[in-house]
Design brief:
Number of strands: 0
Structural class: mainly alpha
Distance between the termini: 81 Å
CATH architecture: Up-down Bundle
Shape: globular
Strand content: under 5%
Helix content: 40-55%
Length: 177
């Protein structure tokens, strides 16, 4: 009687293991924080002249306040969607933009910057947490994963950082190197 060959089936994993998993998380954190070949988001905001927060530049569609608030609101939405099943996103598109081109006061600008930084750190913590399954579908989503949300956030922030840098250059408010 011939012996049957048995093929050992291995369970597929939903995420990489060991060093690969850590490296992916580190690379995501690096991407979210900015840098490398690009300026950091905070470089675009640091020393932004208070008198120009609500100023439009020739041929550019948004003010510094609008860009800051939009990225803060969108980032908060992505973060909360990623971790809170009861989160309700703002109405699109109006809920993602401030109502006015200028902040109500200088403190509102500083509060928005602080909230942006805090939420970015929260997203970095979420992707760096080894208990976060980056590849699992977000249970209350429509197929999204935390990995996808982190990439969307990095891409969105990068896009608007480019707009912010262009705005500052057009306003004569970008530091000379």
């Amino acid at each position: 009687m011939k012996k049957k060959k048995t093929i050992k089936k291995t369970a597929s994993k939903s995420k990489p293991s060991g060093n690969t998993d850590r490296e992916l998380r580190d690379q995501l954190a690096y991407l979210l924080k900015g840098g490398g070949a690009h300026v950091h988001f905070m470089d675009g905001l640091d020393d932004f002249p208070a008198g120009k927060y609500g100023t439009f530049a020739n041929a550019l569609p948004h003010t510094g306040w609008q860009l800051l608030e939009h990225t803060r609101i969108a980032q908060r939405d992505i973060l909360e969607f990623s971790r809170n099943p009861k989160h309700v996103s703002p109405d699109f598109p109006g809920g993602y933009w401030p109502k006015t081109p200028m902040p109500p006061n200088e403190q509102a600008w500083h509060d928005s910057v602080a909230a942006f930084q805090k939420d970015l750190q929260e997203m970095v913590r979420l992707v760096q947490n080894p208990r976060t399954d980056l590849f699992a579908k977000v249970p209350h989503g429509e197929g999204q994963t935390i990995l996808r949300e982190a990439l969307v956030l990095a891409d969105h922030n990068s896009y608007h950082l480019g707009q912010l840098v262009d705005l500052r250059r057009a306003l004569g408010a970008w530091p000379e190197v």
